[in-house]
Design a protein that fits this description.
Layout (H helix, E strand, L loop, with lengths): L12 E4 H4 L17 H11 L3 E5 H4 L6 H18 L5 E3 L18 H20 L4 E5 L4 E2 L7 H22 L4 E5 L8 E2 L4 H8 L8 E3 L3 H5 L5 H10 L7 E2 L18 H14 L5 E3 L9 H27 L1 H10 L15 H9 L4 H6 L4 H12 L4
Parallel strand pairs: 1-2, 1-10, 2-3, 3-4, 4-6, 6-8, 9-10
Antiparallel strand pairs: 5-7
Helix pairs in contact: 2-4, 2-11, 5-6, 9-10, 10-11
């Protein structure tokens, strides 16, 4: 398929080895697709026109691989990158699959587990940097509890803080050009995961010794599964200069973590997210942390990957059209109209401004009667998305 919605390198569309390489296993069913090697996944992504590929350490190198096996895998992976032109913008560590991490990694009660988690992460950071990663993501999938009887949240928070401070110092000591991004999720696979939302992560980052190195990697599904508005969390992160990376997928509100194709469920939410990213000039990767339905073979996986990228580009075009639509813009101009009568109260506080504002007269009845035309604006947005504008 070659048209104006065909991805280009400047779109910076990326996928993880764990996304298109997902074999379709779920808690109730066995795999439905064969395991692909990392190199095979890179070639698949090259076929669909992706820009880059990201990995957990053990997506690339199995946890029990010998040195010779690791070297052979890395050689084949690098050859695939060279053949396809794909890059590795981001890497991360699997601190959730191995039974050693059943009580968490950085927040585990066992100090040996915490030390092993740091060791594993340092090696994984080295691996990511070896392949060119500039962003390193931390998803604490096991950093939580099923019962608060077993773990003090203050202790857990201090342990997580200590781990991030240690790893920031490691990155600086190695001279790596690397930023760290924290990824929030409210629950699953733990009953409750610490720092459950992007806002919680943003607050936590400010307690770190090198907060300038640490931002967030918000994921659509992780906020929407808790019934939250993802766009608002992204906007807060952007406003704070902390939107280092983003995970795009889709999700029905209140469900388990579904990781559907981007735009597959909440089309209007996806539209406003794309519009925001394009309007503010977000220049990072558009990473699709999603996977194909379990019903699909690998041709279906390619359809899934193409669909993620195509939907983003279609919504990008719709966003540009929304910004240029005369009726929509006229409504916005009326909604945002400012007659200048409050100019004297704007800006930085002064005693004179406060006194003037306290003495000002406002017609609260008229303020309450004014209609804002949000119904019409929303309907025009829907009509644009449905293709009749």
């Amino acid at each position: 398929m070659s048209d104006k919605y065909t991805p280009k390198p400047e779109d910076k569309f990326t996928f993880g080895l764990w996304t298109v390489g997902n074999v379709g296993r779920d808690p109730f069913g066995e795999p439905v697709r064969k395991v692909l090697t990392p190199a095979e996944i890179v070639y698949l992504l090259g076929d669909v026109g992706a820009y880059g590929v990201n990995f957990h350490d053990n997506d690339l190198i199995p946890i029990d691989a010998t040195a010779a096996e690791a070297a052979a895998i890395k050689k084949a992976f690098r050859q695939a990158l060279d053949d396809t032109g794909l890059v590795v913008p981001m890497a991360t560590t699997n601190l959730f699959s191995d039974p050693a991490f059943k009580d968490g990694a950085f927040t585990a009660n066992d100090p040996k587990v915490r030390a092993y988690a740091l060791q594993k992460t340092m090696h994984a950071i080295d691996l990511g940097v070896e392949f060119g990663a500039k962003i390193y993501v931390f998803w604490g999938g096991r950093e939580g509890t099923e019962t608060d009887a077993g773990k003090n949240p203050l202790d857990a928070g201090k342990r997580f803080q200590d781990a991030l401070n240690f790893l920031c110092e490691y990155v600086l000591d190695q001279g790596y050009d690397l930023k760290l991004a924290l990824e929030a999720k409210p629950n699953e696979p733990r009953g409750d995961i610490y720092l459950a939302t992007t806002g919680a992560m943003l607050g936590f980052i400010e307690t770190l010794a090198h907060s300038e190195m640490v931002g967030v990697n918000p994921e659509v599904a992780h906020e929407q599964m808790a019934g939250l508005n993802f766009l608002h969390h992204v906007a807060q992160a952007w406003d704070m200069g902390k939107l280092f990376h983003i995970d795009l997928n889709d999700q029905a509100f209140g469900r388990y973590d579904q990781d559907f194709r981007f735009g597959a469920v909440n089309l209007k939410s996806a539209f406003f997210l794309v519009k925001f990213l394009e309007d503010v000039g977000y220049a990072g990767s558009r990473h699709f942390d999603a996977h194909a339905y379990r019903t699909e073979d690998y041709e279906g996986v390619k359809d899934f990957a193409r669909g993620c990228m195509r939907n983003y580009l279609i919504l990008k075009e719709k966003a540009a059209r929304w910004n240029q639509d005369a009726e929509i813009q006229a409504l916005l101009q009326d909604i945002l109209a400012d007659d200048g009568s409050t100019d004297a109260f704007k800006g930085k506080y002064t005693p004179a401004k406060a006194a003037a504002l306290k003495a000002a007269s406002f017609d609260r009845i008229a303020l309450g009667k004014r209609g804002l035309s949000y119904e019409k604006l929303d309907q025009l947005t829907l009509e644009l998305l449905m293709g009749i504008r």
